[in-house]
Amino acid sequence: MSKYYNEKELWGLFRNGNDEAFSDLYRKCYSRLYAYGIRYGMEPQNAEDAIQDIFFRLYRRPELVRSTDTLIPFMYASVRYYWFNLLKKNGKMDNLEDMSAGFNFTYTIEEAILDREDREAVRQRVDRLVGCLTPRQKEIVYLRFFLGLDYDGISSVLNLSHQTARNLLHKAIKSLREKDAEAIKLLLFVATAFHADA
Amino acid sequence: MEKNTNLIEKFLFDKKLAAIADMDIADSERALAEMCAADPDKAQAITDAWLLLRGIDVSEDAVSATDVEASLRRLRARLRRRTLGRRAVAAVAASAAVLVVCFSLLYKPAADSADTSQMVTMLSRPVELGDSVEMQVGEQDAIRFGDNISVVQTEEGVISVNSREVTAVDKAKKEFVRLNVPYGKRSYAELPDGTRVWLNSGSSIVYPSMFESDRREVAVTGEVYMDVAKDPARPFFVAANDLRIKVLGTAFNISAYGDDPFTSIVLVEGSLEVKAGGGAKKVLAPGHILTERNGALDVEPADVHYHTAWKNGYIELREVALEDMFKRLSRYYNVNFCYNPIGSQVYLYGKFDLSDTLEQALDNISFSKPMTFTVNGNEIFVEFK
Q1: Considering only CA atoms, which of A156, A139, A10, A143 is closest in space to residue A70?
Q2: Is B383:B374 a contact under the CB 8 Å cutoff?
Q3: Measured between beta carbons, which residues in chain B are less than 8 angstroms from residue A173?
């Protein structure tokens, strides 16, 4: 079933009484939520606990999600706050603002698109560029480009205003451009490398 | 090339393309081809953007399908346990209801004791508090204090406030002690049996100057945290709005504000038996919250620390709607927030130190959410940026 429906549609089906849609939603979201948690330094067990906690709450209290548009941001925000609360409980963090510093931005280049050699070259280049971003900018770029969230989604995950999210992202892209004018920008490089190869 | 870059950037933010990139590869390629055909001038940029959106993957952290299935089974098991528990409770509740109906034909329904009903009546009479914490002992004149107080009553009936003796109860007759804490203040009381009570802003407690030999009864409104002294021979009863709570040495938090649509109890340790006005009854285990709405009781696991943080001088907000945050802050600081309602999508997380001044608290909020505050006496006008 999950093949044919996206997250929002599955959520809608679940809200209309389709219990299996809930399982499909879990299957569909698990890896990305897990990866997101790991990026903040969560242990695998913490990440699973967080996801179970989120889905347990979603099942028991679906009204927590005000509209289907906020479902996905809600889940990412929940992972982030789950981890923050755990760190706080253990005396390792006081301030939500400090969460960004722990965000580790890594990624792979999809094998289907690049062969091994190019992937390594592209990866190094991209790593260097991403290294120039502030932690907060990294979080935003990640949410925007890799998870495909829109500004409203980003701002609710990171607890920012819509405008702040927009400004920070533009700043991030601008600083990427300034840092490496030749490469034009971070992700474009991946595409050109592909074309050169093809 | 530069022009093409801008175009690519534009398409990276294109909702339709983002959705296409999210599809299975065959569908995705077909949809991409359609999108390019519809806009051939920009086909190159669209294709590049699509490659970017698809080309970078978080697969390094991906979890195997087997692991996801195992995790899903664990979740389903948790949900089933929960649902089963609720069904069992519902069944018991249904049979209890049948019993109650039968007995009520034979007996008068059990009513509050004379003391409890008198105390509840006392609490239902509104008092004009202003800014002072007020203590009234029996028929004596009320004593007012400009600041938070700590009241201790010994078994002999001597009452001290902030470690200074101020009065004593008349042991010759039965009377009641009443403590009223206005919005903007908090206080602490030690009852003659050693039970400790923290009163949050806008809360009151009434208790008999001397407890009976076989029972201890108090009535509260607002929010209180109680650490009840153990005394199996004299069970402890609390009346809070429509709830009647039976206690056997335990610590818990009650939130029973008149302007909230619910009453809730969080049990920290021990065990509690709670009865609603309509007859519903629940036994509460530690680490759980019981919520009463319109006579219905609901029990859920709860983070005890979160619900009792106010007692330690701070409040935490987790996924709290803006208007609920204003409601809570207006209790602590005794102010009114005036604002035009905005979309209901604003939720807040954060922590307030209750020893902060109002200005510091407002500063903290405007730091995390873009809004400005204009203070005019007790009114605070909020403008969202």
Answers
A1: A156
A2: yes
A3: 9
Under 8 Å CB-to-CB from B358, ≥6 apart: which residues? B333, B335, B375
A3 contacts B58? CB cut-off 8 A: no
Contact B48 A30 (CB under 8 A): no
Distance CA B271, CA B321 (A): 31
Give the predicted TM-score (pTM) of the model.
0.45
Whole-angstrom Cα distance, residue A22 to residue A14?
A: 6
State which residue of chain B sits closest to A182, comparing Cα positions. B2
Q: With an 8 Å Cβ cutoff, are B75 and A191 in contact? A: no
Tell me: pLDDT of A14 over 80: yes
Tokens at residue A22, please? Answer: 């809930």
B75 to A56: CB separation less than 8 angstroms, yes or no: yes
Residues of B in contact with A150 (CB under 8 A): 15
User: Are the C-beta atoms of B229 and B248 separated by less than 8 Å?
Assistant: no
Question: Closest Cα to residue B56, out of A90, A106, A158, A167?
Answer: A106
Model pLDDT for residues A136-174, shown as the tens digit of each residue: 777 877 787 667 787 788 888 887 766 776 777 677 666
Contacts of B53 in chain A (CB under 8 A): 145, 148
Question: What are B96's two structure tokens?
Answer: 């209890």
